[in-house]
Amino acid sequence: MKKALYPGTFDPITYGHLDILARATQLFDQVVVTVAVNRTKKTVFTAEERVELIEQCLDDKSWKNQVTVDQFEGLLVDHAHRHKVSTLIRGVRQVSDFEYEFRMALMNRKLGKDIDTVFLMPREELTFVSATMVREVAYWGGDLHQFVPEHVAQALQRYRYDAPENK
Question: Count of domains in the chain?
Fold first, then answer.
């Protein structure tokens, strides 16, 4: 069985992430979506909330049985080894993404000689969508429905109104 890890912050998960995930399920029998926990990085959602949002995205997907969702903290190569996975999936939208992801892939290969990275691109109309931009649109009350599923948009609306400066 071919198995891969799709790591990321997913804060929040976007249609771009879901497009990459759908592509990965065409290449691999099993894909583990892995929510990164980085205590030095401020996120809108907790790791548990991000896992839940991702799992809800899978409900209506024909490939949902090929996907599991978990979280990790620490070195990605260690997490990959725990899952007995030697392939990482990374999405790239533009050249600047590739430069960063290329360096990360080389570092991961240096730390785990058995670890390879597969780069996938989302559909062209999703190449400009980033979680950072989605959070910004959410903060200012913009329409999120073209960027994220409905339940994610609702969760981001709660974030907007729960922000300390809005209390």
Answer: 1
